[in-house]
Amino acid sequence: MKERLLYLAYLFTAVAGLLTVVYPYTESKGVVLLAVGFFSSASAVFVGYRLQLGTVRAFLGLAVGNLLSFALSLAPIDTSLKYLATSLGLLVLLLPVERKVEAQKVSREFYRFLPFFFFFYLVGGVMYKGFMEFYGEGAYLLGVEVVFYVLGVLASYVLLKRYTEQALLSLASVFLAVSLLLFHLGGAVFLNASMFSLQLAFGFADFFLLLSLYSLKNPLVAYPVGFSAVCAGILTGYLVSHTRHYGDFFMVFSYFALFVSVLYYFWQRKDKPQDKQEETSHPPEPDVRKTPLDFLRELEKSIPDHRKKLSGRELNVLCMLLEGCTYEVVSERMGISTSSARKYARRGLEKLGLSKEDLCALYSECMQSQSATVK
């Protein structure tokens, strides 16, 4: 089934590229544009699949792609050639994938975060539609706002080396709130400053979104579902933006949606007990060596206090540590900072009541006893 989905992504990407080439020559541009959006949705998921084969550094493609797009828009060449160049960029996706992604089960925690993405990007949909009516006339240089988006992406990559992903969310929320305020003040100066702040906000937000989906290690589930929540939020925001003529309602609704999204995110960040189905999702098989995950699941069950359950990320970090990975390797694989990897390990060890050395020693003893049994 997954192989068929990948072949379908190849086909849809090729169709999206072809439609992009013919777009300047068609009369029904609205229909063609809708078709490009439909077929390129599969391309977006395919990009996510390819991202899973790399590291977080690949997210810098957000910055490179937007800069190239801005440069192309300024190039003194025929418009049809610009669309042709854009379509040629899709050919990169048609190159064969060198290896397959070993998909992991997506935890229920991911689905509980979807409302956050919906509400956060709803504010983006409201703002973008609200801007477009005024920004084109008052922009200092139409398109230069992309530079601020790129700065947000680059800053996200740098910050992630020292801070957790929550720092990206916090900065995205702050710049989005500032953008709302500046937009409300009116005037050409504030309008441009508001757009720049909005682009910064979504530079952080898009990096955070990709990081969240990347960490799930199941691109054919995470990216379609995650992008669907984002697109639903943007579409809803676009529809709500028609109230922009009712200024007070427009502002109150936008701030309320932003507040709800951030509040919901941090509320869901609280550790929740895993359900019984997840606890038994990896039962040890007879006469087969236990994996680090099986070992941790059994160790977790032996803890008297059933309220102290390991979260998905704590399990993943501890599993990789038992496999002999360093914190740097863990951070690269999970798409998080080294400090975040240490934090999840520390929290998991505290719940188990063990030090890292004790945990590794217990696992080593378990493996040795299993080896003796197999012999």
UniProtKB/TrEMBL annotation:
Keywords, comma-separated and alphabetical: Membrane, Transmembrane, Transmembrane helix
A GO BP entry: regulation of DNA-templated transcription
Tagged with keyword Nucleus: no
InterPro entries, sorted: MFS_trans_sf (IPR036259), Sig_transdc_resp-reg_C-effctor (IPR016032), Tscrpt_reg_LuxR_C (IPR000792), WH-like_DNA-bd_sf (IPR036388)
Positions of the HTH luxR-type domain: 307-364
Name of the molecule in the record: LuxR family transcriptional regulator
Natural source organism: uncultured Aquificia bacterium
The organism's place on the tree of life at top rank: Bacteria
Gene Ontology molecular function: any one: DNA binding
SUPFAM superfamilies the record matches: C-terminal effector domain of the bipartite response regulators, MFS general substrate transporter
Membrane-spanning ranges: 7-25, 31-49, 56-75, 81-98, 110-128, 140-160, 167-190, 196-214, 221-240, 246-267
